[in-house]
Specification:
It is a single chain. Helix content is about 50%, strand content about 15%. It is built from 16 helices and 13 strands. The strands form two sheets. The chain has a seven-stranded parallel beta sheet, with helices on both faces. Strand 4, helix 4 and strand 5 form a beta-alpha-beta unit.
Length: about 375
């Protein structure tokens, strides 16, 4: 008997990581042949990549317009492949602007859609939860407060916990990491995660570099490590910083975070990773002015970063859009890195808040729980087909 085809799709770096882990878990549980949209991690996990997510990954509302031809072509290729392979299930990972439309096209083909990593509609455009109800057989959410939001909208939803819990670990000591990267373990280290999309690098890079110069003027012994996400143009990122300014670049994000005294993190999945390490952080983010203006009326939350949203209060400082300037960032960083009593008290409170966030993210095994739920849908689909 041939393997059952399943469409698995992700549209950005974090989704590629989550979907790759899910692919491995599914292949351990059932005889399946996975195909769809993704990146290097899904490909390494044995998924047949029909569309590389680099073709469609985009930052911001106005920037989408430039990508419309690529988005349409990617949609057409995935639907054509689904018509050819006849998968009983499609597992779509976050990336709602694309995946809600894809789900609408797949449903008439008799494909049961499952949302893996629910979109953050509770934060903006909450009415779109109705589209999830209509187009998806089940939604799997990774944050504790999402379950009630989606259930109140009539969605068949299950909280699986966060896939990063149990996976975010360092593989070496601070001393070994410093030795490998030419750093002094006895001097303070700030780890900078500027983002995983090219647009984020364009909007964040110069500000981060200017801020670090100002921070180092106040703390001359400070060292910086910049974590380079997969798919980011490293040469372009390095050009933002003065190479002689005690800045090192690495793709070893987890060990870089583990070694840090302070993290400066682009809002997104990376803030959860830093939280799981218990690292004090400053969250930053900037969009194009037009995108920010268009998005502002749609936002329904007081906070921007996942850490503060999960806690329901400000655990870490956020510098978003116009607040994200070299001067503001430098001031926040110097305050946290100083040896003052106020700084120590602030760091202690941050540590307690991050421990609370970690607890709320649920126990390890989220990917395995997701795989079990999906295999249940697969068996139901196969039973109905007989």
């Amino acid at each position: 008997m041939s393997a059952t085809p399943i469409l698995l799709s992700a549209g950005e770096t974090s989704g590629d990581m989550y979907a790759a882990r899910l692919a491995t878990a599914l292949q351990q549980r059932a005889d399946v042949e996975l195909f769809g949209m993704g990146g290097p991690q899904m490909r390494a996990a044995g998924v047949k990549i029909i569309v590389d997510y680099a073709e469609v990954s985009v930052l911001g509302i106005t920037e989408v317009l430039k990508k419309l031809p690529s988005l349409r072509q990617a949609m057409r290729r995935l639907v054509d492949e689904a018509q050819r392979r006849h998968p009983p299930l499609a597992i779509l990972t976050d990336f709602p602007g694309f995946h809600l439309r894809l789900a609408r096209k797949l449903s008439p083909l008799g494909i049961r859609n499952i949302y893996y990593i629910c979109p953050q509609f509770w934060a903006w455009r909450p009415w779109r939860a109705n589209l999830v109800r209509r187009r998806f057989a089940q939604a799997l959410c990774i944050f504790p407060f999402e379950e009630k939001f989606y259930r109140d909208a009539g969605v068949a939803v299950e909280f699986i916990g966060h896939p990063l819990v149990g996976h975010v670990k360092a593989s070496m000591s601070r001393a070994n990491f410093c030795a490998e990267n030419g750093l002094n373990p006895d001097k303070p280290i700030v780890t900078i995660l500027p983002g995983s999309r090219q647009g984020e690098i364009e909007y964040h890079g110069a500000i981060l570099a200017q801020a670090f110069t100002q921070i180092r003027s106040a703390i001359p012994k400070l060292q910086a490590v910049v974590a380079v996400a997969p798919g980011v143009n490293r040469t372009e990122l390095e050009a933002c910083f003065d190479s002689g300014n005690n800045v090192r670049f690495t793709d070893d994000t987890y060990n870089a975070l583990a070694a840090a005294d302070l993290a400066i993190v682009s809002s997104g999945t990376a803030t959860v990773e830093a939280a799981l390490f218990g690292k004090p952080m400053i969250v930053i983010y900037r969009l194009s002015p037009l995108t920010a203006k268009l998005a502002k009326p749609l936002v329904r939350t007081k906070f921007f970063s996942m850490v503060n949203l999960i806690a329901g209060r400000e655990v870490v400082p956020e510098l978003i859009q116009d607040d994200f300037t070299p001067e503001r960032l430098a001031s926040e960083a110097v305050s946290l890195l100083s040896a003052s009593k106020e700084s120590r008290e602030k760091l202690a409170a941050t540590g307690q808040g991050l421990a609370e966030v970690t607890r709320l993210l649920g126990p390890p095994g989220a990917v395995e729980r997701a795989a079990d739920a999906i295999v249940g849908h697969l068996r139901l689909a196969q039973s109905n087909a007989k």
